[in-house]
Amino acid sequence: MAHKKRPAHHNRSKKTGKVPLAPATKVPKTPSPSEQADGSPKPANPKAARPARNGDDSAVSSLRCYNIPDYRLERPEFRIFMSGEGSNVEYRVEGDLSAAPPPIRESKYLSRERCIEIYRWMLLNRRMEVALENLYKQGKVVGGVYFGLGQEGCSCASAYALGPDDWLGPMIRNQGAMLVRGFAARDIMRQYMAKGDSPTWGRDASSHFGDWQRRNVCAPISMLGELIGVMAGVCLGARLQGKNVAGLTYIGDGGQSTGVAYESLNFAAVQKLGLVLIVENNLWGYSTPSDMQFCVKDLAERAIAYGIPGVIVDGTDPCQVYDATHEACERARRGEGPTLIEAKMMRMKGHAIHDAAQYVPAPLFEYWRARDPITRFENYLVNDKRWLTAEGNHKLIEDVERELEADRDAAVASPMPDPETDKTHQGVYCDPSCHSIKPKYGPIVAKPRETGATGSKPVEAAVHLK
Q1: Pick from 307, 255, 245: nearest CA to 278
Q2: I need a surface site. Which of 179, 214, 380, 400 has the fewest CB within 10 A?
Q3: Are the C-beta atoms of 328 and 342 separated by less than 8 Å?
Q4: Which residues pair with 279 in a beta bridge?
Q5: Which range is least confidently modeled, 104-113, 361-370, 426-435?
């Protein structure tokens, strides 16, 4: 006797009693969001939006789609891959690299004067790194030098968006951000030369210095990703003292894959701390191309997993970088939590001065050389906006070179530390008599608990970990 076919609701698992889900239907990739009237993309929306229902939507309706705003005026499509065998293996690039560079996007916030000021910082950043390379070749630099060639627009424009109470946590390529935050070029050059009057008095070299007292700058940390947690802690500490601040830091496309980067960003998201994280996707994690590091197309997509806004910008366009960072800092100061900004650009030198970057395909260098941030911003200011005359631009460049030359000479003339006679800054280790560290904004803000039948209860912190 034939068995009758069971209704769908009877088709349950014997173990769980649940109805098995149908296979997920593949949904076409969501297109980029439409731009607003002023040409800028719609603001980030970290919340999910359900796709439209058509017929049987039992599987499709449970899927969520997200949009990541993309401020870029150009979205290049190319792929870096390995080719060859044995000792003849090399990286090659595939795609159209013939396009002309895009224009600079008009800023929603920057005035003429502020654009020119950012341009000046970028020039000083570039000239200082050229001087450091020459000092290294003369044997005057202790250790290596890490360059941000091609990334000056990202470093300088992002740091320029910070307010006086905000904090900066720079990485090794963000020397432009250090300049914007108040360090002189001579400070950075003295540090690289380990001079006795350098920020660390010759006790350390490279970029490991900061200033938490006056400039709100945390020193870089060599272990990549660690600074994200430090900046989240800075924002938490400020909140405990009754103030919301923005804490800006950076990570590369390679460093963002570290476990501590995920843990720290998740902590900042849960606590709604004012962390502003710029992922400098410069295409290379040392000698490994981005295409061989991760499967997502855009690293900004990872913001979705934390429930925070993500945005993509052209890292060679200072106006895009500034606008995105400005809006992220505003969110942070309102207590709305962190933002992840992916800045796409190219590291135009090797990992450090010892790395000749011969593994990079030559056409890729040529493509990004045409997108040099300083050249494009100069053209924007002089030819497009006419905010600078050719004579004014020439004078500005001369002033920067004159300042850099004076700073270089002062740094070279500075004495090396004398281990026998220099007693001013003895300590590698700090003892109780060294100095006291007081709260930056004041004591912890507390509020009284509700009074019960037994009388008043002890106070508790206004903000605490969940």
Answers
A1: 255
A2: 214
A3: no
A4: 251, 342
A5: 426-435
Of 12-26, 81-95, 252-266, give the lowest mean pLDDT range: 12-26
- Tracing tokens 């359900």 back to the chain, one arrives at 50
Query: Phi, psi (5° rounding) for residue 86?
Result: 60, -130
C-alpha–C-alpha distance, residues 152 and 322, integer Å? 12
Phi and psi of 164, rounded to 5°?
-65, -30
**SS3 state of residue 211:** strand
User: Widest CA span of the chain, in angstroms?
Assistant: 105
Q: Which helix (H) or strand (E) holds 157?
A: helix 152-160
Q: What pLDDT, in 10s, does the model give residues 244-288?
A: 999 999 999 988 889 999 999 999 999 999 999 999 999 998 889
* Token digits of residue 206: 């490279």
Q: How many residues does the chain have?
A: 466
In tens, the pLDDT along 23-41 reads 333 434 444 444 555 555 5
Delineate the domains of the chain, giving CATH numbers in brackets: 90-95+102-413 (3.40.50.970)
* Cα–Cα distance measured from residue 58 to residue 92, given in angstroms and rounded to the nearest whole number: 44
Q: Which residue reads 């600078």 in tokens?
A: 388
What tokens were used for 241?
Answer: 């003292």
Non-local CB neighbours of 127 within 8 Å, separated by 6+ positions = 400, 401, 404
